[in-house]
Design goal:
This protein is 72% helix and 0% strand. By secondary structure, the chain is mainly alpha-helical. The protein has one domain (13-270). α3 (47-66) crosses α7 (117-143), α8 packs antiparallel against α11 (219-232) and α8 packs parallel to α12 (239-263). The radius of gyration is 20 Å and the shape is globular. The relative contact order is 0.15.
């Protein structure tokens, strides 16, 4: 007698309960992805530090030295690195999540487990990268004799949660689409690059002037501005803008979950 297990069409709190029951599998996928990513590399997990560090150096030379980009009276390397930390966590999480179903097609077609574990584990690996690359910020602040604002230590978990919601929400939608249309992997890098330039990473949001409301439509704007304000103490936190980011990220997360669950029944056939 053949037993067919079909995924539920709608999302419910039972899905989170099921993920908790399979938490060891979540840990396994996270640890596996970390090992595979840095296996047989000369510097291992230090690549998580190398990429944002080199990007910070290039931005500091091009935008800080040559273009004289304002940085709210903060040393430009510190200013841009805080934004890069949050931005790279979001953008790399979005990229990894969008491809997680295709990358694990062998196990999807053979074994039943909560499919949501795959995108969540992809983001957890990027969270590890985030904490590793944060050590560069500590070194930069020590070099420039810049003391961190204590508020940043308390608000950072909230900012990570909002970034997680935005990245996972967008990633779930893209992963579901990518199963059927593989164009996503080619379009996404251009989209992320465009999104970077409408996110206050390399410039302060105040430079947009009367068009700053356009930046507020980006969920990551409030998160990055709050991170800069909380850690560097260069300005008071714009709680309204952060609330907009939180609400929009939560809405994107709910939409992503809904679409992912709607398309889940087709994953095994399409991947």
């Amino acid at each position: 007698m053949e037993l067919i297990i079909r995924p539920k069409k709608k999302f419910s709190l039972e899905d989170f309960t099921e993920i908790w029951k399979f938490r060891e599998l979540l840990y396994f996928f996270t640890w596996r992805d970390l090992k595979v990513r840095y296996k047989q590399t000369a510097i291992g997990i230090m690549w998580a530090v190398f990429q944002p560090f080199i990007t910070m150096v290039v931005f500091s030379v091009v935008f800080g030295k040559l273009a004289k980009m304002p940085s709210d009276n903060i040393p430009y390397p510190i200013f841009v690195y805080v934004g890069l930390l949050v931005w790279q966590f979001f953008s790399t999480s979005l990229t990894e999540t969008s491809d997680c179903l295709i990358a694990n097609k062998a196990i999807i077609t053979k074994v039943y487990f909560p499919r949501l574990i795959l995108p969540f584990s992809a983001i957890l690996t990027k969270l590890v990268d985030f904490f590793v690359s944060s050590f560069v910020l500590v070194i930069l602040m020590a070099y420039y004799h810049y003391l961190p604002h204590l508020l940043g230590l308390f608000i950072l978990p909230l900012l990570l949660v909002i970034s997680f919601l935005a990245a996972s929400g967008g990633g779930l939608i893209l992963a579901s689409i990518n199963v059927k249309y593989r164009d996503v992997r080619y379009v996404l890098p251009f989209f992320i690059q465009l999104l970077l330039f409408i996110t206050p990473v390399i410039y302060p949001a105040s430079i947009a002037g009367k068009y700053s409301w356009i930046l507020s439509l980006n969920p990551m704007t409030g998160v990055i501005k709050a991170a800069q304000a909380a850690i560097l103490g260069n300005a008071p936190i714009n709680w309204l803008l952060l609330l907009i980011s939180a609400v929009s990220s939560l809405a994107l997360f709910v939409l992503g979950i809904y679409y992912f669950k709607k398309m889940e029944k087709y994953f095994a056939d399409l991947v």
